[in-house]
Amino acid sequence: MGLETVHFKCHHCNYCCTKVICLPTPWDVIRIVKATGLNPYRFLDFLTPDQISEVPANDPTWLKCGGQRYLMALQQHNHVCHFLNPVTRLCGIYEARPILCRLFPFKYRESRDGRFLGFTLHSDVGCPRHRDGVVEVPELYALYQEDEQHQQDYQDLVRVFNRKRYLGKRPQDFVEMFIVSNEQRAMSNE
Question: Phi and psi dihedrals of 54, rounded to 5?
Fold first, then answer.
């Protein structure tokens, strides 16, 4: 565990791109759209509880439509992330990848009273956790704080979405909320 650095280096085993379902925040989706120009419906999926049993029923990011719950995720094809290049076996959106991907396999550590203790590597994931590199904790902490803010914004958007009642409501409509509102904000700033 480190307050200054964590010993880790990614050897591109692709565990995180093949065994982990990535649940991006709306900000992650916007960043990917800006970097790639792709329509978000080309790379997003909406999973039901039977497709992702690891997420508790009370998670605040479940979208509710027609009596069913959904989580926004990056598409996978045969258990492989949509953005994993099949030839190079590298991430095709590495610079724009979701914060969840950037923080994997690091684990935030805090004391019982909420004081920051540092980062370590998750011990209960299949990543080999090679320790032949050094990652600076301040960079991880900044990412963690950014993710915390994005998660709060995400939960707020989901709350608004889940309160909406209309015929034909689909989980894909959630994307319209933040893609459209982000585009409108950008236009009003011009």
Answer: -75, -15
